């Protein structure tokens, strides 16, 4: 590990000094290499995960798209938060010349996910964000898809070599012990992880207990509650039954945004929704899960739920409980094709039960037309990083406004996202230069930057879209 992490540290200066236009070109070249090797990548991923060619081609398209979108963000430069306060008098007295910019942290460790072998693994969003920020990346491949990891890594390396990158811009390791050595190596300055709460806790402790602690960005377990109001149930029970079942069972329930709790009114309309979900569970064939071990863990966790089972079918397992009988233990994530229906009598019953639900990536509210739900929406906002209305959470668009994060235990930091352009912020730190000669300043902070260094800036408190 010393050799791999050491060359990553040596490559950090090259990555930071690479002009933003060339860094953007590098990201786009990586996307092009993935596109060029798409058939082989999808074949490997399908053999190792059984996710199916249509799903995997869509995931590969997403992976290439987010690399290209990060390239656009790098060219724009707004993510640098360039800020200048000129020297002058203030009500507090004289102020020095202050210039602030975000700079790369240094080498980043990325731990690949099991359920997204492309979009959240070797070429995924964490890798793309770290490279876009100007950081070398050492990736710990997930054991569920080693061949896919290697093939994707080789595609990224081909693009890096064409761009003239030194050894160390990208690294790849396999095995649990290698992951431990990676996150504890002094050359690593941050780590990103997508996986189980147990794995995240262990890695987070290693990151925090180093002689030099480092930021650890973990996406862990998420229950993603869905609330259906009485009005919504009365207006579209059949539609909600089909839609909720489809969201739960998508990808064999292996999405981090799967609805794990569905709150239904204890009414005739609520029962129609429950019956519709049950019918879909019974009609669906069993879907292969990512690994036999993940299937075994799902069945074991489902057996441990102290909740009455409504449906046990090849397609999935459906549980149902009244709000009065609901306990916090029932809100633990069950990774796989299952969900728990929670029947509530009235809004007071619903609010009391929501208070037992832990933090999640998403919370969803289905309402009737013109229904006033401001307080209920605020309640859900306190428990999630993304609040959806009249939709389904299993789908995370890559965009500037996206937030894929939430309160513990869904992530280790509700301040940051692992999807979208602001994911770069995890791998950057602010530096302020005071009364610095222009020769030592980053070009983006020069009084009159060169054309290639012009970025949006805030100067003396006023926003300048592009200087």
From TrEMBL:
Q: Could you tell me the superkingdom of the organism this chain comes from?
A: Bacteria
Record-linked Pfam families: Aldedh
Print the keywords alphabetically: Oxidoreductase
Q: Where is the Aldehyde dehydrogenase domain?
A: 8-267
Q: Does the keyword Oxidoreductase apply?
A: yes
User: Record's CDD domains?
Assistant: ALDH_KGSADH
Keyword Oxidoreductase found = yes
Concerning InterPro entries, the annotation shows: Ald_DH/histidinol_DH (IPR016161), Ald_DH_C (IPR016163), Ald_DH_N (IPR016162), Aldehyde_DH_dom (IPR015590), Aldehyde_DH_Superfamily (IPR050740), ALDH_KGSADH (IPR044151)
Q: Which SUPFAM superfamilies match?
A: ALDH-like
Q: Which named protein is this? A: Aldehyde dehydrogenase (NADP(+))
Instruction: Supply the source organism for this entry.
Output: Amycolatopsis ultiminotia
